[in-house]
Amino acid sequence: MKIIRTKAALRTLTDEWSRAGQTIGVVPTMGALHAGHLSLVGEAKAKTDRVIVTLFVNPRQFNNPEDLANYPRTEDSDSVKLAPFAVDVLYVPDPDQIYPDGFSTSVSVSGVSEGLCGAARPGHFDGVATVVSKLLLQTAADEAYFGEKDYQQLQVVTRLAQDLDLKTRITGCPTVREPDGLAMSSRNLRLGEEARKIAPVVYHVLTDIAEGLARGASLSELLPDARQTLDKAGFGTLDYLELRSAQDLEPMDSAVRPARLFIAVWLDGVRLIDNIPIPSA
Ligand code: PAF
C-alpha cells in the first residue's frame, strides 16, 4: 500500500489505472478505522480493480473546535489495519491539497441536509459536501462507499454526486455493530468504561420503537417511554429522535412508507448517533 500525500502524485497513478481500463473504488474516512470502515474497504476490494482509502480529518465539518481537537489521529495504526486488505493507496492529503490558500468554494446541498444533524451541527454538511466533492474528484473515483451509520451524510453525498454530474457511483453499506448492538464509531473510543456499558441502550431504544411502530403505534405515542429509558440509563441531551422517509428524509409520524428512525444523544461528553430501517407498515 502506497501512502500518498499530494494530489499530483495521486493523479499520476489514477491516470495510469484509467488508461489501463481499471476501475477505482474509494473509501473516504477521517481515520481511527474500525470494523465498520473495514467492511467498506472489503466491499470496494470486491467490486473494483483499484482501491484508495482516504484519511483526512476535515476541519470544515466540525462545528465545535473542542470536538476537532479531540478527534483521534491514528495514521500508523490505521495503516496496520488496512494491510490485510492489500489496498492500493492510502491517500492522506496535506491540508493545502484540500484547502489551498485562497480556497473560497463551498458545496451546499439543500433538502436532505436540513434537520437532524444538519440542525444540530450548523455548517457540518457543507463541510462534508465540500470535502467529499474534492476527494471524489482528486481520486477519480468510479465507485465510493459510505456507511449507513451516517445515513443523512449518505443522502447528502448521493445528492451531490448526481447534482454535480460526478462520474462516481455512491454505494451505502450496512452499519456494523458491536455484539451488544452499539453502532461502531470512531467516537466510541472516547466513552469512559461506565458510559461504554450504557451506550448500547441507544440501539435498544431504536429497536423498541421499531416494534411499537410495527404494532401500529405512532412515534409521538412511543416517544415518552423512549425518553424515560434514556434518562434512567444516564444519557444527557437528546438532540433528536425522529422518523423520516428513507428516500428523501421527509419527517413522518408513522411508517406509511419505508422509513428510518434516527437518534442523536449525548453520553459522557460524546455525541452518539444511530439509525435503523423501518419497513412500511
Ligand atoms: O464519515 C466520515 O468519516 C466523514 O464525514 C467523511 C465522509 C470522510 C468526510 O470527511
Q: Can you put this structure into words, describing what you see?
A:
The mean pLDDT is 97. The chain is built from 11 helices and 10 strands. The termini are far apart. The strands form 2 sheets. A 6-stranded parallel beta sheet has the order 1-4-3-2-5-6, sandwiched between helices. A 4-stranded antiparallel beta sheet has the order 8-7-9-10, with helices on one face. It has helices at 7-19, 35-47, 65-70, 75-82, 95-98, 117-120, 124-139, 151-163, 193-198, 201-214, 219-233, and strands at residues 2-4, 24-29, 50-55, 89-91, 143-147, 169-173, 238-245, 251-252, 259-267, 270-278. The protein has 281 residues and is α/β, with parallel strands linked by helices. The protein has 2 domains: 2-173, Rossmann fold; 186-275, Pantoate-beta-alanine ligase, C-terminal domain (Pantoate--beta-alanine Ligase, Chain: A,domain 2), CATH 3.30.1300.10. It is globular, with a radius of gyration of 19 Å. The longest helix is centred in the middle third of the chain and has 16 residues, at 124-139. 40% of the residues lie in helices and 20% in strands. Strand 9 (259-267) and strand 10 form a beta hairpin. Bound molecules: pantoate. Pantoate is lined by residues 28-30, 58, 61, 128, 131-132, 150, 153.
